[in-house]
Amino acid sequence: MLMPSIFTENLFDDWFDAFHDVDRKLYGKNAPREMRTDVHEHEDHFTVDIDLPGFKKEDINLELENGYLTVRAAKGVDKDEKDNKGRIIRQERYAGAMQRSFYVGNALTEEDISARYENGVLQLNVPKMEARKLPEKKTIMIEG
Description:
Elements: E1 5-6, E2 9-10, H1 17-27, E3 37-41, E4 45-51, E5 60-65, E6 68-75, E7 96-103, E8 114-118, E9 121-127
Antiparallel strand pairs: 1-2, 3-4, 4-9, 5-6, 6-7, 8-9
């Protein structure tokens, strides 16, 4: 039986299937999870905005070690949740962990950096610190 078609495509096929392969490659189980980040430079500090939609403040951890500021976020799908709406055909909500590190220099301490989480965006304020000056070149005299 010949199905009605437009531009040689079957009208009864799921048009979304054409996008599924691309979608799976971009966002599938093996796709890397990224923290989308914007960094703005101001006169005396940097503002870092990191998109973390769907995370709670308690899901996010910030650590400063050896000059690296590391942002970690982890969450799971609530297993106690009952779904009486039918079987799941597609699940896109994220469950897992991700992290990202930024080199901020050894001169900063955790007290220097402030963080705020609102509407799925983590905002960090990182002050600019002057780079440590290297000692001037000095000549060592050789005896003998």
